Amino acid sequence: MPPAAALKSATFPRFGLASWSIVVPFIALLAVVLGKPSGIAMAVALALVLGGAIMSAVYHAEVIAHRVGEPFGTLILAFAVTVIETSLIISIMLSEGNGAQALARDTVFAAVMITINGIVGVCLLLGGGRHHEQGYTQSGVNHGLAILATLSVLTLVLPNYTTSEVGPFYNANQLIFVAVDALMLYATFVVAQTIRHRDHFLYPEEIDGVHDPVPKAKAVAAAVMLPLALIPVVLLAKALSPSIEAGVAAMGAPHAMVGIIIAALVLAPESLAALSAARANRVQTSLNLAIGSALATIGLTIPAVAIASMAMGLDLELGLSFKSIALLGLTLLVATMTLSTGRTTLVQGMVHLVIFSTYLFTTLVP
């Protein structure tokens, strides 16, 4: 998605926002009244409306982001996407019960692979192809990768090796402990990104406070519309969850594809924003979006899902398979090497894309 200030859409005369971003949430709210889809055509129509509501939510978050500037901008975008993702996961957990006990793990893992390999890979490949080399602030990326590695192991690997519960599960006390740790680490990252070490995540011109101006009235209108766009996302996701499950089963695909579909759906607008930034030779923004989204996915989604699972009395399967652990370890190892120089090239992008394609292929052909 291009920056909000650069969008050429028709504007809503009163608020100065793109007219589609005002209309779509109300269409989505109307679609909620229809309830669960009764056929394929209705399911497709509701899916399109859901996609539009997600795009609208991220658009309004982007307007607010341009008002407050970086790095608050990427933080708001990541938070909005995480709210959507968490809502989708919990909605399906409510409808499927213990049948969706691995959904949070699959979705979080998919989000990490999409952001760190998919988004970063495409951005580095296309950005390097257009601009030869691109620079970024290395220290900020290092902060993010260090926290991502810690969160990934604590939430997705360690459950396989604890002995209080059999299998890839934490018991209640362990789950609470890890959820609190995840929140603390994410909060630490946010403080570093926005207060203590803000310059580690910015371009020089952004350090001076230069960013696209957005009128206060437009930002206020976006703040009002953002929750109006998020509410139908949650409700439509709940209505569509049986169709998503049935579609994956009809394809004969592994159940993990449900998590990939959810992650891909909610990350699509943010992926376009990162790609637009890379093409504009602003790979710092692309990396902020990708790494920030991965951190928010684990640091916010896992605690929220943990609370929901305990409240509903559901088991939460978090531990990855050995194959997935190998891919996660390879991803973190390669990311620390490819993003350790402060300069990017298309070679690094291709490496990440190969890992991402391997993840997708081995999910479909395990």
TrEMBL record:
Gene Ontology cellular-component terms listed: plasma membrane
Domain Sodium/calcium exchanger membrane region: 40-194, 223-364
Domain of life: Bacteria
Subcellular location, principal: membrane
Coiled coil: none
Listed GO MF terms: potassium:proton antiporter activity; sodium:proton antiporter activity
UniProt keywords, alphabetically: Membrane, Transmembrane, Transmembrane helix
Residues annotated as transmembrane: 12-34, 40-60, 72-95, 107-128, 140-162, 174-192, 219-240, 246-268, 289-314, 320-339, 346-365
Cell location: Membrane
Pfam families from the UniProt entry: Na_Ca_ex (PF01699)
Topology versus the membrane: Multi-pass membrane protein
InterPro entries: Alkaline_pH_Ca-Antiporter, NaCa_Exmemb
Protein name according to UniProt: Ionic transporter y4hA
